[in-house]
Design goal:
Elements lengths: L2 H12 L3 H20 L4 E3 L3 E8 L2 E4 L6 E4 L2 E8 L1 H8 L3
Antiparallel strand pairs: 1-2, 2-5, 3-4
Length: about 90
């Protein structure tokens, strides 16, 4: 599913226009991104949570040359699925 398909589904289920659905989806994702990039955790009970995690500095290799290179420490977004989401994917209800 891509963004356009998500907009179609949300518009139909919420009985709103596609333009309204797209505005709400965009605003929700922007809010989640802002919270997580600010260092806080976003949790939607039953679905899951998003948070920033620290990735340690490490040594890597250039795939073309095989030359060693240092990869600096950074923060990366992470998602942990909630119980209801895990159960839905596993097929149990």
């Amino acid at each position: 599913m891509n963004k356009g398909e998500l907009v179609d589904v949300v518009a139909e289920r919420a009985s709103v226009t596609k333009k309204q659905a797209e505005a709400v989806i965009t605003a929700a994702f922007e809010a989640i991104q802002q919270v997580v990039s600010g260092g806080d955790k976003f949790t939607y009970v039953g679905f899951g949570s998003f948070e920033a995690r620290d990735r340690k500095a490490r040594e890597g290799r250039n795939p073309k040359t095989g030359e060693k290179m240092d990869i600096p420490a950074t923060k990366v977004p992470a998602f942990s699925a909630g119980k209801q989401f895990k159960d839905a994917v596993a097929g149990s209800k």
